[in-house]
Amino acid sequence: MKKSYWLKLLSCCFGLLSVLILMSFRNKGDSVLASADMKVKSGWVQIHLLNKNPILPFSFIYDGKSSAELLNKWEKKIETKKPDKDRTQHHLIWRDGTTALEVHCIAIEYSDYPSVEWTVYFRNTGSSNTPVLRDIQGLDAQLLSENKGEFILHGIKGDFCTADSYGPYQLTLRPDFTKIFSPSSSGKSSDGPDGWPYFNLQMGNKGIIFAVGWPGQWATSFTCDSSNHLTIKAGQQLTNLFLKPQEEIRTPLIAMLFWQGSDVVASQNLWRRYYLAHIIPRINGIRQQPVMQVQMGGAIEDTSNIRAFLNAGIRPDISWRDAGGGQNTWYPNHNGPYKGDDAWLNTGTWNIDPKRYPNGFSPYTDWIHKLGIDFVLWFEPERVGDPNSWLGRNHPEWLLPGTSHGSLLNEGNPVALEWLINHVDSLIKSQGIDWYREDMNGGGPLPAWRKNDPAERQGITENLYVQGHLVFWDALKQRNPKLRIDACASGGRRNDLETMRRAVPLLRSDFQWPSMENIIKGNQGQTYGLSFWLPFQGTGTYYYDLCSMRSFYMAGFGMGELTPENSAAQRQAYAECRKIAPVMLFGDYYPLTPYSLQPDKWIGWQFNRFDQGYGIIQVFRRENCDENSIQVHLFGLKPEAQYELTNFDITGSWKMSGLELMEKGLTVEIRERPGAAIVHYREIR
Known about the structure:
By secondary structure, the chain is α+β, with helices and mostly antiparallel strands. Among the domains are: 2-25 and 34-258, Beta-galactosidase, Chain A, domain 5, CATH 2.70.98; 317-444, no CATH class; 589-683, Golgi alpha-mannosidase II (Immunoglobulin-like, Sandwich). It has 16 helices and 38 strands. The strands form 8 sheets. Strands 3, 4, 5, 6, 9, 10, 12, 13, 17 and 18 form a 10-stranded antiparallel sheet that branches. Strands 28-27-23-22-21-30-29 form a 7-stranded parallel sheet, covered by helices on one side. It has a 6-stranded antiparallel sheet with strand order 31-32-33-38-35-36. α1 (2-16) runs antiparallel to α3 (35-50) and α9 runs parallel beside α11 (460-479). The radius of gyration is 26 Å and the shape is globular. Mean pLDDT is 92; it is low at 1-34.
């Protein structure tokens, strides 16, 4: 029954999701879909969530019986409301009269995009333990490819601090084939080659984008049987537990976005627009803007670094204080177990070091705030690396042993969570912190979660912890409405959908240091792959030649120490990046070459603001590439319009029509090897 309903529904949905979606998507600055398209999406919601006996898109086993068998027999009610003009919330509630288990599915359907998302909650409302819940899947769906053709899965790798982090893949799912994705046994949600929790499934001339929101250890499987039916499951990787009285757990957030046609790049741009409309954090209704960043000085109330940038004609948007190398941390270092360059790992005392900063950070933050500059402060509250730290000495009962760098502060413990919220909130308020930067180093929290699970409650520690982690961030933002959060986790290793609703990655990867192999080509490749999914991404560079600097331009950009020798280069880099960052953040993204890390290849891309009539092209000639020019065909332009083009390295401008740029193409010459070029274009109105 479940399989046939899915097949009938998807056939109907994608038959109706016609070319109107792509035409609307390609020719409007905002994705506003026709009413017929919204009816298709509403039909999916009706059949899979709102019908009397819906074909539910999630599953679990309870007391040895499947959810498909149980839920249609339990007491059920539905509550619907509209949080705003673009969203309708459906709250589905089932209750088992025997065990008092309640299952809540909270689903959001959108009226401006062909998308729907949901989260499932399990709550024990009784006075005794429930039977065992296991194999909880936030997503459980079966699909059939169009005309029994192949399923093609598009995505990118996660981050693992190498040149090929975020490298794109294309995987054909053939009969009798299974592929499982999950983070690299760390509990960091976007860690490792198979750790990116976003997927684009193409089925002939249609497709669905899936995203998993879970800042923990998730797993997603794609299983194609001999009849070419594809089963997709996604959830917390391990769940086999009972619930204590009044206890509640949840599934990962699941988002689905339907698309029509065969243009996968167009579908990714539909995702980017949905992301910018409904996911990227906002303050007072304003979306996150590009930021140029520099470090503050390390000495007491040191303003010299910012002054040097200002004197060089560079005005940053944010100044951050990182952990500090070795003993030079902003928090007290208790001469813990880590020595030398690793002494900063002695975490667990989240107070400002009175020796280095006797007046705290407020004199510094008061000064930069007058200049219009925000302050970022680095934290890593989850990892307690020093047993002699404040947390280690005063509250060892709050700690979970088992991580590679000490213990883990248990955010699933309500008392520990309350302390953490209050303590960090007090620092934000008293020290003028505008950005809360949260890191998660080492092997991640998963070993501690698993080690501290009772044998009969596998997965409970992680689930309660993840819920507490999200409550912590939400509480900080609620108490500090202008606060922004930077998700780090050893670079870009915690960039799932729930995290990205609350934060942006100012550092997309720790793959940024000059000592690393293929650092320039690798960062070009990271921009190429990650731009399909995250409009906002950031990093920093310690190179000052033009090609290298341009390889790091993005919505969040920073550079290393300013010196008289590199001040002119840095001034040029910040000015160029400030000019192109808005279109890299808010524009559509089009790759202009194949992805490659090879030294004899070109690589390049285009970002286009159709609604504003302008965009940029970035191309890079690698060190062993013999061709000194490349011809690229642009996308998303008006064929009849005239465009004025400017090469950042050539004086003057020239004009071409949109039709010429898209059909004939644009020739870009770079004489240096390696070399980089940026071409800006704007519609002449």
